[in-house]
Design a protein that fits this description.
The complex is a heterodimer.
Chain A lengths: L3 H12 L5 E2 L2 E2 H35 L2 E2 L7 E2 L3 H7 L2 H32 L5 H16 L2 H11 L6 H8 L11 H29 L3 H9 L4 H29 L3 H6 L11 H10 L4 H29 L4
Antiparallel strand pairs in A: 1-2, 3-4
Helix pairs in contact in A: 2-13, 3-13, 4-8, 4-10, 5-8, 8-10, 10-13, 12-13
Chain B lengths: L2 H20 L17 H4 E3 L7 E7 L7 H10 L3 E7 L5 H14 L6 E5 H9 L3 E2 L2 H5 L2 H9 L3 H6 L1 E2 L2 E2 L2 E7 L1 E5 H6 L11 H11 L10 E4 L5 H8 L19 H15 L12 H6 L3 E6 L2 H8 L5 E4 L10 E11 L5 H11 L2 H9 L4 E2 L2 H4 L2 H4 L8 H4 L4 E3 L6 H16 L5 H32 L13
Parallel strand pairs in B: 2-3, 2-4, 10-11, 13-15
Antiparallel strand pairs in B: 1-3, 4-13, 5-13, 6-7, 8-13, 8-14, 9-11, 9-12
Helix pairs in contact in B: 3-15, 4-5, 4-20, 20-21
Classes of the chains: A mainly alpha, B alpha/beta.
């Protein structure tokens, strides 16, 4: 079998630039590779230092007792056994699951509708204004916006309840009722994130050839039929990608709930990420926190694999 | 320039930037870095650099300007020390503050001198973050004299752990009722008496409250709803507490605990004279006249002065059962075991807990000074409303806020369950039962860890970031 390096070497020979060879690779090729690795070395180093090593350390800490101040001690399977009896873990996973389902569904629907809306023919300045306004929440920091929303949703002196009272309606306990607080966290996430999904879907929509729409119109298709038979099938690859990243992001929600409700009332809006933070940095139990993080990792891997498997049935690439 | 030369130049520039970023932070003495995440101009105050001086870094939750005059004094008294004081946020209470301190230490930040209140004292002491001050005090007659003759015994003992003096007391607080004198007069109410009861209090609430679900509502009273200190202001006046007297077990199943919580939740849900404490800005509402009474410590006087709000006075918490008690907590300065210059750190402790710093705190409207001599000065006595003297005179019947070593775990447990009571999610009986289960599990775990650590300490030599820790 001829290797790619050998093909490249023959090409360089033909061009007359091949010099001394080392392991069958020309010097020019080696220089090219060298430059490439030098350029990506900082990124690889950053990935290794801030991602790979902490992940490996986290896997190791699952089997240790570590309180940040004293060296880790071997714990065997104690941390994993603790997972089974942890009732709060089941509660926070249930909260996270509700947030994932609610936020993902609303983000996909709203993102697609907004993309279809801004993709229509309109004056350029209006299109620019709409896209900027809808994408702006994505650009700002989650925590600072959540602080503002906490004031807006405050029961006694919040803007939203003031408006409701002006309309003759009773004020609602947006952040202190366990059900409404969860809804508030979901709606905040949707408001913050749908702009990003709008951009994704916009790119997907603009990849659909216009000829398909024109041909369908010639055949007498109405607007609804165009969406149902052309837009939706051809947007499925984008929808698949958007769904995967939405689910992963929703499971990792931390700052929204932390700032809006602090996880309360009780544990009503405490997410799995908040629980990991609490165990690690309030209880100083890095071992058990790593075990909980491991379960989240497992859940995300399984969900992603499942989505890839299911995508064969509903994602159309041609 | 060829493509290859361009690529080499870009790679070199990227490498230079990466190395510059790595070298931007210095650790250890001499570092000019402030508290992580804090703006140096807002959260750090320090003496100017001096060649050969040893840098001592202290941290506190108090505003930075509290320490400016003390730093000048330190410069004059101890020219061999360069003192820097940072501010660590107390957002989230003392348990959150203790978490930040421990995270800073675990992250390798230099901390020589730490201020923490009793709520975090056992936590930091049990983790060997603080070193005992006994040897320093015994060798320093001035400090010994101050500690035993100018500081109340209760405050002194609050800063001890397992019989050792872990911190030098600096200030303390109790909780009293602030009430709006103008609204009381308008309603024809006499000022509450020092021995007023819960029934008297409820009667006042019903008279002054005007809650109709509009933007102009006036609530009679707002309580903390969370936080051990705020809730114990009510528990102690019903002769009960969330923990047993020895702080070893949960006391949540005491009927008086449920009685206290039921009284408070009835203020919200039955009598409608108090708001759900979650998210309620009682400071702003009290000054706006939408709240008639609140429970707070002396530190709230400063906020009222800042708002130029003077139509209020103070009274003891209403009483229900048992002897009259006021909840008390003390803070003080301690030396971190990680400090590489404990003798210099002790000098910093002396300055930061001395009269200069104490007076500055009083004048800024902070806590009650631990030094009796400062508390007797006009600056303290005349600061605030007419009844200010009840702050210091209550020390004789103070009861310490429960502060076991796992305070940072048990306080959030209680807060979580309290919030389910205030919003009606659970009844008082349901919530106390669940709180008791969690609380007792944590207290049992703490007792087990204490036993293990004593066995562990006796059998091994431990190394830890707290370099000078001694296995006791």
């Amino acid at each position: 079998m001829i290797r790619r390096s050998q093909v490249r070497a023959r090409q360089l020979d033909a061009m007359g630039v091949r010099k001394l060879s080392l392991f069958g690779v020309g010097r020019a090729r080696a220089q090219e590779w060298g430059s490439a690795y030098v350029l990506i070395a900082p990124a690889i180093a950053a990935l290794a230092i801030f991602l790979v090593i902490p992940i490996l350390a986290s896997f190791a800490l699952v089997f240790a007792h570590y309180d940040l101040l004293t060296p880790p001690r071997w714990a065997g399977l104690e941390n994993l056994q603790q997972l089974l009896g942890d009732r709060r873990l089941r509660t926070v996973y249930w909260n996270s699951l509700q947030i994932v389902v609610g936020a993902t569904f609303l983000n996909q629907v709203l993102g697609l509708l907004l993309a279809m809306g801004v993709n229509r023919a309109m004056p350029a300045f209006l299109r620019y204004l709409l896209r900027t306004a809808l994408f702006f929440p994505v650009l700002t920091t989650t925590a600072s916006l959540a602080l503002v929303w906490r004031f807006i949703l405050s029961q006694d002196r919040g803007v939203l309840n003031y408006i409701l009272q002006q309309l003759g309606l009773a004020p609602l306990p947006w952040l202190t009722d366990p059900h409404l607080a969860l809804v508030s966290v979901i709606l905040y996430d949707v408001w913050k994130s749908c702009g990003y999904l709008m951009v994704l879907y916009l790119a997907g929509l603009q990849g659909i050839p216009d000829e398909l729409y024109e041909a369908a119109k010639v055949d007498g298709a109405n607007r609804l039929q165009l969406v149902r038979h052309i837009t939706l099938p051809l947007i499925t690859p984008t929808a698949f990608f958007a769904t995967v990243i939405s689910i992963i992001g929703a499971f990792q929600i931390f700052d929204n709930a932390f700032v809006l409700t602090g996880g309360g009332p009780g544990d009503a809006t405490r997410t799995i990420a908040m629980y990991i933070y609490e165990v690690a940095f309030k209880r100083y139990d890095m071992g058990y926190a790593s075990a909980v993080a491991l379960t989240l990792f497992g859940v995300l891997v399984l969900l992603t694999l499942l989505q890839f498997r299911l995508s064969r049935h509903w994602v159309h690439y041609d | 320039m060829s493509r290859r030369q361009m690529l080499r130049l870009a790679a070199g520039a990227a490498a230079s930037l990466a190395l510059a970023a790595c070298g931007g932070r210095q650790m250890g003495p001499g570092s000019a870095q402030g508290t992580p995440g804090a703006s140096p101009t807002q959260a750090v105050v320090e003496q100017p650099p001096k060649e050969g001086a040893i840098t001592i870094i202290a941290t506190s939750q108090m505003p930075i300007n509290t320490w400016k005059t003390a730093l000048k004094e330190a410069q004059e008294r101890y020219p061999d020390i360069r003192l820097k004081v940072t501010q660590t946020s107390i957002q989230g209470g003392w348990s959150a503050y203790a978490d930040k301190i421990i995270t800073q230490i675990a992250g390798g930040e230099q901390l020589d001198v730490i201020m923490i209140a009793i709520e975090g004292l056992a936590l930091l002491s049990s983790k060997r973050v603080l070193r005992p001050l006994d040897e320093f005090i015994q060798a320093d007659s001035e400090a010994y004299d101050t500690l035993h003759n100018d500081i109340h015994k209760t405050l002194r003992e609050m800063m001890q752990y397992e019989g050792k003096q872990m911190e030098f007391p600096f200030s303390w607080n109790n909780m009293v009722i602030y009430y709006n004198t103008k609204i009381f007069q308008e309603e024809g109410l006499k000022p509450p008496s020092p021995d007023w009861t819960w029934n008297d209090f409820l009667g006042v609430c019903k008279q002054v409250a005007n809650v109709r679900g509009t933007a102009k509502d006036r609530y009679a009273y707002s309580f903390w709803g969370a936080g051990m200190f705020g809730m114990c202001a009510w528990y102690f006046n019903n002769d009960t507490s969330p923990l047993t007297d020895d702080w070893q077990d949960s006391n949540m199943l005491d009927p008086k605990v449920a009685e206290t919580l039921q009284f408070l939740v009835d203020l919200i849900r039955k009598h409608r004279v108090a708001p759900n404490p979650a998210g309620w800005d009682e400071n702003a509402q009290f000054h706006a006249g939408h709240l008639v009474m609140r429970t707070c410590g002396r530190w709230c006087i400063g906020a009222s002065l800042a708002e130029k709000f003077t139509s209020y006075d103070l009274q003891y918490q209403p009483h229900k059962a048992g002897p009259y008690k006021t909840v008390v907590g003390t803070d003080g300065w301690g030396i971190a075991t990680m400090s590489q210059h404990p003798n210099e750190a002790w000098k910093a402790v002396k300055v930061l807990s001395g009269k200069t710093a104490s007076r500055a705190m009083v004048e800024l409207g902070g806590n009650i000074p631990a030094l009796r001599s400062v508390a007797e000065e006009p600056a303290f006595r005349e600061y605030g409303p007419e009844n200010t003297e009840i702050f210091y005179e209550s020390l004789d019947y103070a009861r310490t806020v429960p502060s076991p070593p796992n305070f940072n775990i048990i306080e959030p447990i209680l807060d979580r369950h309290y919030s389910t009571i205030w919003n009606g999610q659970k009844t008082v009986q349901e919530a106390v039962k669940l709180a008791h289960q969690e609380l007792q599990a944590e207290m049992d775990k703490l007792k087990e860890e204490s036993r293990s650590s004593r066995v562990f300490a006796a059998s091994t030599t431990r190394t830890c970031p707290c370099q000078e820790a001694r296995v006791q």
